[in-house]
Amino acid sequence: MTDATNDTNDRQSVIARLAEIVGTEHVLTSPELVAPYVTDWSRRFTGPCMAVVRPASTKEVADVMSACAQAGVPILPQGGNTGLVGGGVPATRPGPLGPPVIVSLRRLADISPVDELSGQLTAGAGALLGDVQRHAAAAGWMYGVDLAARDSASIGGTVATNAGGIHVIAHGMTRAQLVGIEAVLPDGSVVSHLEGLLKDNTGYDLAALLCGSEGTLGIITAVRLRLHRPPGRTSVALIGSPSYASALEVMSSATSPILAAEVIDETGMDLAGSVAGLPWPLAERWPLVVLLELIDDGDGSGFEALLDDDADAVVALDAAERARLWEYRERQSEAFSSLGIVHKMDVSVPLASLARCADELRSVVDGFSDVTVFGVFGHLADGNIHVEIAGPAADDTRVDHAILACVAGYGGSISAEHGVGRAKAGELHLCRATSEIAAMRAIKAALDPAGLMNPGVLFES
Ligand SMILES: Cc1cc2nc3c(=O)[nH]c(=O)nc-3n(C[C@H](O)[C@H](O)[C@H](O)COP(=O)(O)OP(=O)(O)OC[C@H]3O[C@@H](n4cnc5c(N)ncnc54)[C@H](O)[C@@H]3O)c2cc1C
After folding, report:
1. Which atom of ligand 1 is nearest to the CA of 221?
2. Cross-strand bridge partners of residue 261
3. CATH for 234-333?
4. Which residues pair with 387 in a beta bridge?
């Protein structure tokens, strides 16, 4: 028998074993059925898989993991496939272990009742972020993480990427909401720590470790989340700003608590306007528009104290108006994606350097004559800007490298919230020391000695 025949037989026996575990209808192999799982939201990243498997329980996930481990087949966990760094879809060219089995967690979507005493709930990894938010709200609570992909992103994916979003200034990143985890490790063993103890100093914090691990250490099957009481009524404003320095000054002068502080540049405003049919909302045009949401009884009093008479601003007090102003920000990713393949750089810098770094980024990008559109939007309060570039081909990463190097030069991060994925694995050294990368690799090797979990993500190989 030839090697090719052996490979086909091995592949068929793995697929047969997976079908025994989850049922034939939950093992997808035909190109039409796997298509939505192998190309990411941005359409920039795509690659082949051996199969997509859709387990319905932690036990099935563990059995799938053991079957793949026994056959030496790589595993790629996937939630809502809204990640923007290529970590949730296969590599274009499979590595030495061949194409992965994609394990879709979407069927693990149960959400427990809210525990009123602790203000916590347990959610299956496949539950949508939006469903967790609505579930918490129905019980009089609020989940602290929110982002525009809320009705597609899974809670497991948000934990695997330590997602940030629009409320980080008020509630922190996903890791700050996490009080317990259940996960299947590469050897098929299940770690389950879902009691939700706020105080528990019994060794390494596996929940915190798996949070942000981007599917490289194991498969998250359920999470215990802390909730918050809703903050009370808020007002929202869009405020015209001539520069980042001035935008930061406005934000930092707020005396009411800030629920969100976002920024959109003129390019992003115009694109959202044309995609969503929204008019320019201010009296004049500005290089930047700041969106602030203040907790101020919903009467705009927070902005009365903040804005002087010359300010070019629009303030929304009722829910419909607030949603209308938020639309300029919520439609940003979609607006840039309407241009075709867009290079998305999700970076952060210390607030004190943001204005200087943003200026330098503009000159860096000016050096690339093939860039047709350069726009920026993001989470101002977190020093986190999303740099969007159209023009260069999907696999031409010269401008990406230049932008990430510039950000690193300001002591910033090459990934503020989306993760490293495949897109930035080669640049990890820009913001992590050799000793840190060695420690991370040692953790990976201890938990995943055969290197089966999401190879090529986070580390180059
Ligand atoms: C319109 C839009 C707006 C966005 N806004 C934000 C934002 O404001 N802030 C932000 O942080 N992100 C944002 N994102 C990015 C994305 O929504 C987040 O990264 C989200 O956390 C991904 O969740 P997912 O379920 O889609 O994960 P996927 O894309 O399916 O996977 C992402 C990564 O997590 C791993 N993974 C997924 N599920 C599991 C699991 N159960 N166990 C182990 N590993 C797993 C995957 O292998 C992959 O590496 C946005 C995306 C879009 C499209």
Report:
1. 41
2. 292
3. 3.30.70.2190
4. 345, 376
